[in-house]
């Protein structure tokens, strides 16, 4: 089942120098396991290929049902150096939420996901 | 000892709502008002002001904020903790004293002034003693930019603030303290937490992280269910209601808009976070993976279970330095073929800059309304490479042919002010000389801005000594 990340998670992003951080939070506790398993560091790195010049790091916060991603080289130097509209990485959150995850049907059903979450 | 202390966040950054400080002390009971005025490069702006006028160098808005809360301070025992001192905490305190005197309550305001964070005059001494002040991100030594340094301040922790409160101050003014210390210090003072009560200090730091961005934890900038967040025109700024054991509740005053919920608080917790197990401050290292949140009632989220460990032996130093010049020019192109026209204009502009022989460190073009925020992920192809990638993608919007308008946004950055200046003069001619349907240029020629960049470094704690003066 193809699931849109924006349908099962919310997020907020910020900056630290030339790095954008994106915290991705499962909308329901039972969806965190899906994020943990399928929203991998490599998948996120592929998603942002061409948009960032550095590597991606992933951290887990199971206590908050959240993952934190660091996207290095994301902000054209960051801070006052950056020429970007989004110099402080405030909408890298929504850029990440554009991702789609391919989840085995049974796993999706176990997590209570229904067909309406599938992309049209 | 108090069994409960309420710390209100009244300012997330310099430029935040002018009413929030007053609203926080007037719309309900609070014990402390915490105000944060310092972004990364604010200190350099304040240094420039102090250079021109030695009685300046602090956040002047703070005086207006103090004016609006003076009654709460002098009549209801509210205490204010702020880093508004910038690079001149004594001058800031003097201005507050003047204000209090002019309102006839000079004897009711007792100010603790914290200094010692300012390292600008000590840089050469520190470099000679072997402290490289290397850039934490690149490893370069400070010597590479020595002559361009504008300000240098160590991020100090809670101790001097606690001392000021212990000595009876009802207003504490610091220079560059960590934002989180502004919240943690009042709790540490009221509850008698010691320097090695790691879990409790960490809890205070987490409370500070939650409330230091104003309403960004109480419904502002909240993506979760955003349409149903009520009355943001009257959004309630946050209050941390804390207890001696380190647990606390995040809440806001009744009859305010916004929402305090597990999702709204969680979004703020992950904001600007690196490795969650290692949130480093001068006082303690907090582990954000230990935080437990529960919705305790409407607009009340309980936070507990926080763990911390010993701090490092270093302080972070915030250094600002001159890093060249930049300018950004924009024009709006309208349908039909808005994006294509904007791209044609960009090509012409770049050819002009090349023909003029202008050198830049970076030229960046974005198409606002098409792909400025999400690049190729928007599904609108603005380069040949993107067109290849996006073709056939299920969410592709193709070449943006139907967009009603697109803003061409071109920025340049470089060490040569003259080159950046000349760039700013190449935007307006495009309206008459370039592709059709350009508008949105009435703002005039873009401004050339000197770039003041941020250089984060570390220094041995032992070389920084803070002083607390009571005035």
Structure description:
- Chain A is α+β, with helices and mostly antiparallel strands and 120 residues long.
- Chain A contains five helices and six strands, in the order E-H-E-E-H-H-E-E-H-E-H.
- In chain A, the strands form two sheets. Chain A has a four-stranded antiparallel sheet with strand order 2-3-5-4.
- In chain A, a hairpin with a 4-residue loop joins strand 4 (56-61) and strand 5 (66-71).
- The longest helix of chain A is centred in the first third of the chain and has 7 residues, at 32-38.
- The model of chain A has no long low-confidence stretch (mean pLDDT 94).
- By secondary structure, chain B is α+β, with helices and mostly antiparallel strands.
- Chain B is built from 13 helices and 19 strands.
- Chain B has helices at 20-26, 42-52, 61-76, 89-102, 123-128, 159-166, 179-191, 198-211, 262-269, 338-355, 384-390, 417-424, 429-433, and strands at 5-11, 32-35, 79-82, 111-115, 149-154, 171-173, 239-242, 248-251, 279-280, 284-287, 292-297, 300-304, 307-310, 314-334, 362-368, 405-414, 438-439, 449-460, 467-470.
- In chain B, a hairpin with a 3-residue loop joins strand 9 (279-280) and strand 10.
- In chain B, helix 1 packs parallel to helix 3.
- Chain B starts with a strand and ends with a strand.
- The interface between A and B is large, with 41 and 51 residues.
């Amino acid at each position: 089942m193809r699931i849109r990340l924006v349908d099962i998670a919310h997020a907020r992003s910020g900056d630290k120098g030339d790095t954008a951080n994106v915290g991705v939070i499962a909308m329901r506790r039972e969806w965190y396991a899906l994020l943990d398993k399928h929203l991998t560091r490599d998948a996120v790195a592929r998603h942002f290929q061409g948009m960032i010049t550095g590597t991606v790091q992933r951290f887990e916060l199971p206590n908050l049902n959240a993952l934190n991603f660091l996207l290095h080289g994301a902000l054209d130097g960051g801070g006052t150096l950056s020429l970007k509209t989004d110099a402080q990485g405030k909408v890298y959150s929504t850029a990440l939420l554009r991702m789609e995850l391919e989840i085995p049907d049974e796993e999706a059903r176990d997590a209570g996901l229904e067909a309406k979450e599938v992309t049209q | 000892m108090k069994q409960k202390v309420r710390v209100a966040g009244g300012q997330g950054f310099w430029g935040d709502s002018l009413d929030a400080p007053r609203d926080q002390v007037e719309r309900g009971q609070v014990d402390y008002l915490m105000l944060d005025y310092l972004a990364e490069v604010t200190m350099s702006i304040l240094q420039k002001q102090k250079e021109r006028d030695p009685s300046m160098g602090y956040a002047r808005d703070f005086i207006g904020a103090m004016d609006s809360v003076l009654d709460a301070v002098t009549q209801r025992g509210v205490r204010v903790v702020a880093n508004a001192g910038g690079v001149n905490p004594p001058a800031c305190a003097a201005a507050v004293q003047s204000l209090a005197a002019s309102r006839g309550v000079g004897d009711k305001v007792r100010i603790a002034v914290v200094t010692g964070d300012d390292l600008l005059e000590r840089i050469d001494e520190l470099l000679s003693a072997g402290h490289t002040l290397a850039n934490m991100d690149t490893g370069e030594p400070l010597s590479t930019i020595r002559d361009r340094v504008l300000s240098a301040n160590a991020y100090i922790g809670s101790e001097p603030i606690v001392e000021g409160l212990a000595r009876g101050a009802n207003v504490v003014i610091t220079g560059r303290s960590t934002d989180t210390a502004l919240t943690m210090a009042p709790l540490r003072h009221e509850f008698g937490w010691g320097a090695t009560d790691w879990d409790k200090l960490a809890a205070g730091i987490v409370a500070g992280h939650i409330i230091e961005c104003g309403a960004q934890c109480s419904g502002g900038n909240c993506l979760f269910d955003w349409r149903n967040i009520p009355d943001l025109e009257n959004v309630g700024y946050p209050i941390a209601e804390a207890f001696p054991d380190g647990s606390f509740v995040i809440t806001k005053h009744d009859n305010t808009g916004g929402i305090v919920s597990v999702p709204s608080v969680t979004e703020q917790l992950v904001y600007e976070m690196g490795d969650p197990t290692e949130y480093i401050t001068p006082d303690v290292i907090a582990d954000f993976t230990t935080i437990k949140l529960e919705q305790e009632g409407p607009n009340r989220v309980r936070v507990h279970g926080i763990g911390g460990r010993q701090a490092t032996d270093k302080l972070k130093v915030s250094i600002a330095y001159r890093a060249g010049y930049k300018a950004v020019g924009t024009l709006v192109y309208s349908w039909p073929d808005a994006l294509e026209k904007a791209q044609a204009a960009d090509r012409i502009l770049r050819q002009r800059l090349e023909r003029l022989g202008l050198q830049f460190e970076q030229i960046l073009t974005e198409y606002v309304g098409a792909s400025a925020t999400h690049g190729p992920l928007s599904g609108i192809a603005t380069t040949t490479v993107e067109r290849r990638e996006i073709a056939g993608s299920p969410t592709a919007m193709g070449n943006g042919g139907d967009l009603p308008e697109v803003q061409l946004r071109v920025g340049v950055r470089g060490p040569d002010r003259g080159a950046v200046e000349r760039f700013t003069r190449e935007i307006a001619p495009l309206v008459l000389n370039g592709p059709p349907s350009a508008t949105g240029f009435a703002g005039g020629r873009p401004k050339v801005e000197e770039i003041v960049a941020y250089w984060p470094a570390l220094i041995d704690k032992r070389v920084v000594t803070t002083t607390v003066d009571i005035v």
